[in-house]
Amino acid sequence: MDAQSSTQGRRVALITGVTGQDGSYLSELLLAKGYVVHGLKRRSSSYNHPRLEHILDPEYPDSERFHLHYADLTDFSSLCKVLRLTKPDEVYNLGAQSHVQVSFELPQYTAEASGVAVMHMLEAIRTTGLERSARFYQASTSELYGKVHEVPQSEETPFHPRSPYGVAKLYGFWAVKNYREAYDMFACNGILFNHESPRRGEIFVTRKITMAVAKIKLGRQECLMLGNLDAQRDWGHARDYVYCMWLMLQQEEPEDFVIGTGITTTVRKFAELAFARAGMPIHWEGPPGVTEVGVVSEGERKGQAVVRISPKYFRPSEVDLLLGDPTKARTKLGWNPQKTSLQQLVNEMVDADVDMATNPRAYLKY
């Protein structure tokens, strides 16, 4: 069944970044709600959408309403082509170069893929005549706050980004507000704080920790290398956060919302919780800094140094504390910011990575 014939009066959504963590969870949510879902993927010589494999399986209940299209956020003509074909009611712009550390290495590309690309999407919606019918969600980020001016951070907190990624996302944030005000488009920003899951990319610190814990537990890795242990983040579950994205596009008027749990935790604590879940509780030895070591406290690996600090993982300009104030989302959207606790999130990620380390096909369950 082709993309047009499967619509049959259903609402239609277009998701950029559909191959990522958030895109896969959002696709599941929208399909379960009866949408026809279209996703953009970039051309690659290797298989680049394992998070979608279960949805693409013909046995998946709603697979016939899920369609992938080749396009790129830096290619305006390809965006217009897909918009004309799909005529979406809702557009979720989740695509970006989203790794903060990488943005210091690739600042120009990050500016294009995470900043200018937002303008591409908004202008493509106008060019294809969808500015009155399509509602637009932009995946903004807590990295906008950077060197924070107040704690916690709300919709009114001034921005002070501390990375090329944060700067690029700030451009996208204001592009959305400008198009909303200039063209009366239903366009909104979700300022999402850190959100994780077993589908998180392997180079992000939370997933790096849980994968290393699994490998150390199974004797396949000796030690985990980390950077700033005392950086504090507001971590929630991606599955909960994509539901809030959807809620934002169901409102009568477009508004920007902070999406976070209201609880902040250090990288140090996240690592402690992860190792404890795997039966390897750790304590810290040595003075704080690059000489500090995480050592297993009990069990068969007692005394083994499993966490060490490397200067290469410190950012050129660090963001020390991020803590979202979800009051507006709680009151206006009825969203529960703490549906999944940090302990539940850590447990799910560690258990999944242990499972996947022993069974390569187990990722299909997560």
Secondary-structure element pattern, one letter each: EHEHEHEHHEHEEHEEEHEEHEEEHH
Distance between the termini: 27 Å
* Structure classification: alpha/beta
Would you count the extended β strands for me?
15
Computed Rg: 21 Å
Report low-confidence residues grouped into runs of 5 or more. 1-5
Helical proportion? 25-40%
Largest sheet properties: 7 strands, parallel
Number of helices: 11
| Shape, principal axes of CA atoms | globular
What's the oligomerization state? single chain
Properties at a glance:
366 residues; alpha/beta; 7-stranded parallel sheet; 4-stranded mixed sheet; 15 strands; disordered N terminus
Task: Explain the layout of strands and helices.
Blueprint: E1 12-16, H1 21-32, E2 36-41, H2 53-56, E3 66-70, H3 76-86, E4 90-93, H4 100-105, H5 107-127, E5 135-141, H6 164-183, E6 187-192, E7 195-196, H7 205-217, E8 224-226, E9 232-233, E10 236-237, H8 238-248, E11 257-259, E12 265-266, H9 267-277, E13 282-285, E14 293-296, E15 305-309, H10 327-333, H11 342-358
Parallel strand pairs: 1-2, 1-4, 2-3, 4-5, 5-6, 6-11, 7-10, 8-15
Antiparallel strand pairs: 9-12, 13-14, 14-15
Description:
- With 366 residues, this protein is α/β, with parallel strands linked by helices.
- Helix content is 36%, strand content 16%.
- The strands form four sheets. The protein has a seven-stranded parallel β-sheet, sandwiched between helices. It has a four-stranded mixed β-sheet with strand order 8-15-14-13. It has a two-stranded parallel ribbon with strand order 7-10.
- The longest helix is centred in the N-terminal third of the chain and has 21 residues, at 107-127.
